[in-house]
Amino acid sequence: MHHQLDPRLISVQRVALSAVSVIIGVATFWLLIGTWLAAWLRGEASPLMGALGLLAWALLVSLLAWYTYRWPAVSYRYASYLVDEDGMEIQRGVFWRTVINVPRSRVQHLDVSQGPLERRYGLGTLVMYTAGTNHAKVELSGLDHTRALEIREHLLPTGQAANDAV
């Protein structure tokens, strides 16, 4: 049975996207003002041009705000994972669906990491390093930190193979 990611991931993504949106909004505002001011100093700008520029900027900021609020919830609905004795399967993608299967026998190394926002919300990212070139590093973010540690322990090799050192 596939499991959903932790719902706190939506808040983490909203905070991260908000920071990016603010940077884009401020940068484009000052670019708009600078461009209009340079055109005005050359005598090529009109108040109508400034008003249209501000209208376009307001539309951009509105779209960024909508994307920041809505997209994390939409992408959350289409992300899931399955852990069993054979390994792990990760499904994600809204428009282009991706299914990644990581056989337990191919797992070479496992990490659990936390960025500042993930740590604040108690989440973690499971990072699996596998044998091979395609998807040699597979990440699953949005897990409860404790759950990520449990999955890591479950996927670690056991028995004779675990004690085999080079």
Please provide a written account of the structure.
With 166 residues, the chain is an alpha+beta fold. The chain contains 4 helices and 7 strands; from the N terminus they run βααββββαββα. The protein has helices at residues 8-41, 47-77, 116-121, 145-155; strands at 3-4, 80-84, 87-92, 98-103, 107-113, 123-130, 137-144. It has a 4-stranded antiparallel beta sheet. A 3-stranded antiparallel beta sheet has the order 5-6-7. α1 (8-41) packs antiparallel against α2. It is elongated. The model has no long low-confidence stretch (mean pLDDT 90).
List keywords for this structure.
PH-domain like, alpha+beta, four-stranded antiparallel beta sheet, three-stranded antiparallel beta sheet, 166 residues, 2 domains
Q: How would you name the oligomeric state of the polypeptide chains in this document?
A: single chain
In angstroms, what separates the terminal alpha carbons? 37 Å
* Count of alpha and pi helical runs: 4
Overall shape: it is elongated
> In percent, how helical is the residue content?
40-55%
Describe the main β-sheet briefly: 4 strands, antiparallel
Rg, rounded, reads 23 Å
SSE order, one letter for each helix or strand: EHHEEEEHEEH
Strand order of the largest sheet: 1-2-3-4
Judged by helices, strands and strand pairing, the structural class is alpha+beta
CATH topology of the largest domain: PH-domain like
Strand content: 25-35%
Number of strands: 7
CATH superfamily of the largest domain: FACT complex subunit Spt16p/Cdc68p
Poorly predicted regions: none
